[in-house]
Amino acid sequence: MDKKIKHYEEIVKQPGKFEGQPRFIPYFYNLMLGGEGTTATELVTEIEITSEDVKLFPELKGYDKVVLYVDNDRFVYGDVE
After folding, report:
1. Which of 9, 49, 52, 75 has the smallest CB count inside 10 Å?
2. What is the three-class DSSP state of 80?
3. Where do runs of H (alpha helix) occur along the chain?
4. Which of 40, 43, 39 is nearest to 75 (CA)?
């Protein structure tokens, strides 16, 4: 398993802003910090899922985008559409 993927799996198991989220949420959050995605509102960003993303996270197959929600306490939640 890719070390990066393993890191994302571990980070969502620990207390913190990604706790309990799917393993791909921190990955897409990092993409968002790098300027990827479309900001829908101040706290919501949508990022298109690419074929490379599906290679890393096969559970994304069949979805078009990840929607990230950042709450006022800076916790990050996500969903797929």
Report:
1. 52
2. strand
3. 3-11, 24-33, 51-56
4. 43
pLDDT at 80 over 80: yes
d(CA 33, CA 14) in angstroms, rounded, equals 21
Render pLDDT for 14-59 as a digit per residue (tens, 0 to 9). Answer: 999 999 999 999 999 999 999 999 998 888 999 999 999 999 999 9
- Cα-Cα end-to-end distance for the chain: 26
- Domain ranges for the chain: 3-80
Q: How far apart are CA 74 and CA 64, in angstroms?
A: 25
